[in-house]
Design brief:
heterodimer, A: about 80 residues, alpha+beta, two-stranded antiparallel sheet, about 10% strand, flat, B: about 400 residues, mainly alpha, 3-stranded antiparallel sheet, 19 helices, elongated
């Protein structure tokens, strides 16, 4: 299973490199406060990477904050019953 | 559609992928923790089964710290604390469980029942009574609560309340509690007899018979009441009925019965009855009673001959002691000294012996108890049959 995952990962990296090489010409981006000129492939891969990281962070925050909230509520009940 | 717009979908898809992967890894991690928890749980259970309560306590405490949602673990922990005598900790734990928000009604009821048991163990019977009464009123786990309430009323000797609750338990579960209720009526009869309320005592005896037709104890109380009122025929009939109901109680019944025979001058009837009993009962009590009877009526020689003959058939330390006592006057010098040593030895042997044993929990006692002091069962303490006992 792990070997298959590594092969897939390598395939995707190779596809990314190929995609970057094929789209090496610059594209300019106007962000309002700054203007950027990035290779088209690089910009595309950066957007994918950023979206993936943001998704992960959102999921992690959602579960850990919920867990913390529940712990805080239980501690409160405990302190009122022991007081 | 311009394919360039399809590229706009790539970042949201990447976002969704990242979100899904993070969630999946979280679920996997918590799953691993659940596995760890359940293995801990079984380890704790194993310690419990092996009577290693200290180790079990350690494991369960850790388990409860890991996961505050495991109500069963808390309950097990509370039970352990109570069994170890740390009742205050058990009470705190169960109180915490009861006050916890979001607990299901079913679990809350179990926790309340456990809390009641903690109170009982701590001797706070009034609090336990209130709690169990509430549970019965709520119709939640009512049979268990009723059983605890009956135990409390027995402890406080409130027999009327005990009878009421036993009847409710009978109606609720369909189990036959008539033997226990008969014992409660017998307790009431004894109380009334001691206070001189003889009519009331007889009424309670009647109630006991209504619950259990062949209640040995009720027959015995009826016999005692009749004997004290001078109704000797009635008393003899009651005592004989008690033996017919349960022959195991012969050692308890014979002394008052023989007293009634003697007072009414019916020693021949006593002899016939004892001989008949000896056929069915293999203890030493009827033999000793007959020996005393022969000694008074036919002389010492006949009594000793009878006793030695019987001792060959049913060897008994009590019988041997009676034989030594009977023949002591006939010996002198060194033989007498030896007899004295033998008598002391047999007395010491008997001193350390339990004469009665509870057939349910094995509790041994020197005197007879209608309710076992250990397991609180009624009518289970019976004479032990053996060389050094009955």
């Amino acid at each position: 299973m792990r070997l298959i995952a590594i092969i897939f990962l390598l395939l995707f990296i190779a596809a990314g490199v190929v995609f970057g090489a094929l789209n090496a010409d610059l594209a300019s981006f106007d962000l309002g406060f700054a203007q950027l000129s990035l290779p088209k492939g690089g910009a595309m891969l950066s957007a994918v990477l950023l979206g993936w990281i943001l998704g992960g962070v959102t999921a992690w925050l959602g579960t850990s904050l919920g867990h913390r909230r529940r712990r805080r509520r239980e501690r409160k009940v405990e302190s009122t019953t022991t007081a | 559609m311009n394919p360039i717009w399809l590229l706009a979908l790539v970042p949201p898809v990447a976002f969704a992928c990242g979100w899904w992967l993070a969630r999946r890894s979280h679920v996997k991690r918590s799953g691993a923790r659940v596995n760890e928890l359940s293995s801990d749980y079984f380890r704790g259970l194993n310690y419990l089964l092996n009577e290693e309560q200290d180790k079990a306590l350690e494991v369960f405490l850790r388990l409860a710290e890991y996961n505050r949602d495991t109500v069963e673990t808390h309950l097990a922990l509370g039970n352990l604390f109570r069994k170890r005598g740390e009742v205050d900790r058990a009470i705190r734990l169960h109180q915490h469980l009861v006050s916890r928000q979001g607990l299901s009604d079913e679990m809350k009821t179990v926790a309340l029942l456990e809390l009641g048991e903690d109170y009982m163990r701590a001797g706070l019977l009034d609090r336990a009574e209130t709690l169990f009464s509430d549970l019965v009123a709520m119709d939640a786990l009512a049979p268990s609560a009723l059983r605890h309430l009956i135990a409390i009323y027995q402890h406080e000797r409130e027999w009327h309340k005990a009878i009421d609750h036993a009847r409710r338990l009978e109606a609720m579960t369909g189990e036959d509690e008539s033997a226990m209720i008969a014992q409660f009526y017998c307790e009431l009869a004894e109380q009334s007899r001691q206070h001189g309320a003889r009519t009331e005592a007889r009424d309670y005896v009647r109630d006991a018979f209504a619950c259990q037709e062949n209640c040995v104890r009720a027959h015995m109380i009826a016999g005692r009441l009749s004997s004290e009122d001078g109704e000797l025929e009635q008393a003899i009939a009651s005592y004989e009925a008690a033996i017919a109901a349960d022959i195991a109680f012969v050692p308890e019944i014979l002394p008052p019965l023989l007293n009634c025979y003697a007072r009414s001058g019916q020693m021949d009837r006593a002899e016939a009855f004892l001989r008949e009993i000896m056929e069915r009962y293999h203890g030493i009590s009827p033999v000793l009673a007959l020996t005393r009877l022969y000694e008074g009526r036919d002389g010492e020689r006949t009594a000793i001959d009878f006793l030695t003959g019987q001792l060959r058939k049913r060897p008994s330390v009590r019988g041997l002691m009676a034989l030594i006592d009977a023949t002591m006057d006939k010996v002198s010098g060194e033989a007498r000294e030896n007899y004295l040593i033998l008598r002391d030895l047999t007395r010491k042997l008997l001193e350390g012996q339990a004469m009665y044993r509870c057939s349910r929990c094995g509790f041994g006692a020197k005197a007879h108890h209608w309710q076992c002091p250990s397991c609180k069962s009624w009518g289970t303490v019976r004479p032990i049959h053996g060389v050094a006992n009955e």
